[in-house]
Amino acid sequence: MIGMGAMIGAGIFVLTGLAAEIAGPAAILVFALNGVVTAFTGLSYAELAASIPKSGGGYAFVREIFDDFASFIMGWMLWFAYMIAGALYALGFAPNFLELLHVYGVVPPPDQVGAVAVPVIDAALPLAFVLAFVAVLALVALNAVSTAASGSVETIFTIIKVSILGVFVAFGLSSPMFSGAEFQPLFPQGSGAAAVLPAMGLTFIAFEGYDLITTVTEEVQNPRENIPKAIFLSLAVTVVVYLAVVTVAVGTLGAQGLADAGEAGIATAATSFMPTGLPIIQNGGALIVFGAVFSTLTALNAVVIASSRVAFSMGREGQLLPSIGQIHHRYGTPFVAILTSAVVMLGSVALPTQSAGNMSSLFFLLSFIIVNVAVIRLRRERPNMNRPYEMPFYPVPPLIGIALNLLLTGVLVEYLLRTDPLALALSVAWILLGALVYFALKRVKGQSDSNQAAAATEITPEAED
User: Over the stretch 146-157, which tens digit does the pLDDT of each residue have?
Assistant: First the structure.
């Protein structure tokens, strides 16, 4: 549920229209290919999680294999990527929740009725930020006092949103609009099949989430067996849900209509073929908004869990302040790590939304490359290590994973150079800040160790006598 809760987030609601705008009906192919790319790296995560059953996800694996500085930068990137994602989910929750309130006449209408994640009217902007902060604080408080409660909330909310998408697909497949669906020409005129790659790079964030499962390894029963199973199951279900939703959206609204609707594409499609006057949920658009609210909450809760576990693991390894790596004596949770992550997450709300999303995608792609390298290096350096799960056809999957993630990284960087250089600048700045923090903490730790050693060897006058 952590993996599905993170992957089936706001991405499927707001990125489908973007994919259709770039790739036309081939948006279906875009999501399918991203699922394939993700699966190769998923195999590496599964093998490493079974071999190294430690919380912290990709950071824990790299820490086991690479030197201090490389593992710190890996953890630093992952930690920030999760926190940025959390800020984006919180900001996505606010307008969706306001739109849901508007459906029931509680607040004035946003600029576009029935839309998902569209800007709200100026008077409501302060309220949107307040709602984002409240969502973060509520889930942080829940995670800080009870791991079991946060897990239960994740399970319930994820079941609700998957059920809503199931209703969307069922109505869509049975509608007359879908019976006359036209998926040709598959690729847009002019760009052709070349449009698939940039669409993959921009929508890849929708598949980020299965890696969150490995951040809670030590909190799972029989992790060597259950973590790989959870990775594969969450990926399989997510890919099936995505393909069904995108196929219905393109088949009913058409690629051009979906592109014109933009971020509101799924809601517009639902409004076009679902009946009105439904009990509680008044129409298809309202149902999708309802699903988007739960999607952003589950994704936000998942990254609150994941970011705090990465910080906790780094603190436990001595690469952040020791207090961050401690378990609360009463609640049994990484209390300080959760609060620290929350502070940075709330600060990330101030970042430009598009740049923050691009930074998150870039850091995740880089981390996936490193994880694939890590599984190869671990095989070479520790061939006799206990591996309860071994990927098939090694070393083909990690090599393909490295190549595909490098390709998507290159496509994304080229796109950012043209359209969002701020995201690249902020990414470099965060890594440089991480290097400064690393050497500063190392220097402080070195001085502390020297002082302790000096105190231990100091000979008092009484001892001399």
Answer: 888 998 999 999
| CB of 16 closer than 8 Å to CB of 242 | no
Among 363, 261, 255, 353, CA closest to 307? 363
Give tens-digit pLDDT for 61-84.
999 999 999 999 999 999 999 998
227 CB-side CA count, 13 A: 33
The residue among 263 and 125 whose pLDDT is bigger is 263
Measured CA to CA, the distance from residue 233 to residue 102 in angstroms comes to 36
Q: How far is CA 339 from the centre of its chain?
A: 19
Which tokens hold the place of 218? 């030590």
Q: Where are the domains of the chain?
A: 1-442
Are 286 and 135 a contacting pair, CB within 8 Å?
Answer: no
Cα-to-chain-centroid distance, residue 251: 28
Count of other CB atoms within 10 angstroms of residue 449: 10
- With vertex at residue 6, the alpha carbon angle to CA 294 and CA 324, rounded to the nearest 5 degrees, is 110
Distance CA 235, CA 229 (A): 10
Taking every pair of Cα atoms in the chain, the longest distance, rounded to a whole number of angstroms, is: 100
pTM: 0.86
Output the CATH code of domain 1-442. Answer: 1.20.1740.10
